[in-house]
UniProtKB/TrEMBL annotation:
InterPro entries: Homeodomain-like_sf, HTH-type_TetR-like_transc_reg, HTH_TetR, Tet_transcr_reg_TetR-rel_C_sf, TetR_C. Residues 33-52 bind DNA. Keywords: DNA-binding, Transcription, Transcription regulation. The keyword Transcription regulation applies. It comes from the Bacteria. Residues 10-70 form the HTH tetR-type domain. PANTHER family: HTH-TYPE TRANSCRIPTIONAL REGULATOR RUTR, TETR-FAMILY TRANSCRIPTIONAL REGULATOR. It comes from Paenibacillus lignilyticus. Transmembrane segments: none annotated. This is TetR/AcrR family transcriptional regulator. Gene3D superfamilies: Homeodomain-like, Tetracycline Repressor, domain 2. The keyword Methyltransferase does not apply.
Length: 204
């Protein structure tokens, strides 16, 4: 997480992030060091520490800024289509060389709490915020129940993608992603209908 301080030299910061990203893809997280980033970028370690508190922060910042540019948030007017596009973009990214790095970062994070904290801050929270925004738009348009549990819905919709990435190792196809999203949405609708019926029964 970038630290507050004097105004940043944006170009220099972008150079450092670009270098950390390239080193990560070339060598993996464990091989990247602040010393190597500084040497490759032609800056001092003090310059890096002026903006980032540790290696995990600068590497994650570089990686997830690059990742975000490949996963824009859609707004088609349909919550189903928006979630489908968003999830498909995520699946395509996960299948790429860059996306495979997510599995490594999660694995390294099991032994490195600083890295895991940074991963959650730079990747998990922004992606969940995007998904929550899409679902909330659907609620506001009347496509989804106002009683929808947004956080649990995100787990239901996106959890299978991470299961395939980290556990089963199965590849993604657009049809598979669409099938997962359709099943999840049917489950959400059924759950909301059940909650509404239970509330009506309790009100009698």
């Amino acid at each position: 997480m970038a630290q507050k301080g004097r105004p940043r030299d944006v170009k220099l910061q972008q150079l450092i992030l670009s270098v950390s990203y390239e080193l990560l893809l070339e060598n993996g997280y464990e091989s990247v060091t602040i010393e190597k980033i500084a040497e490759t970028a032609g800056v001092s370690k003090a310059t890096i520490y002026k903006w980032w508190p540790n290696k995990a922060a600068v590497v994650a910042d570089g990686f997830f800024k690059a990742a975000a540019s490949q996963m824009p948030v859609p707004d088609t007017g349909s919550v189903m289509e928006d979630i489908l596009i968003h999830a498909t973009n995520l699946a395509v990214f996960m299948e790429s060389k860059e996306g495979n790095m997510i599995a490594e970062l999660i694995g390294q994070g099991q032994m490195n709490q600083t890295l895991m904290k940074v991963f959650r801050e730079y990747y998990v929270k922004p992606r969940r915020s995007e998904s929550a925004m899409i679902l909330t738009r659907g609620i506001n348009r009347g496509e989804l129940s106002p009683n929808l549990d947004v956080n649990s819905s995100i787990d239901l919709l996106y959890g299978p993608l991470f299961y395939r990435l980290l556990v089963s190792g199965e590849s993604f196809t657009p049809d598979k992603v669409r099938g997962i999203i359709l099943m999840a949405f049917n489950g959400l609708r059924n759950l909301n209908e059940r909650k509404i019926n239970e509330r009506k029964i309790n009100e009698k």
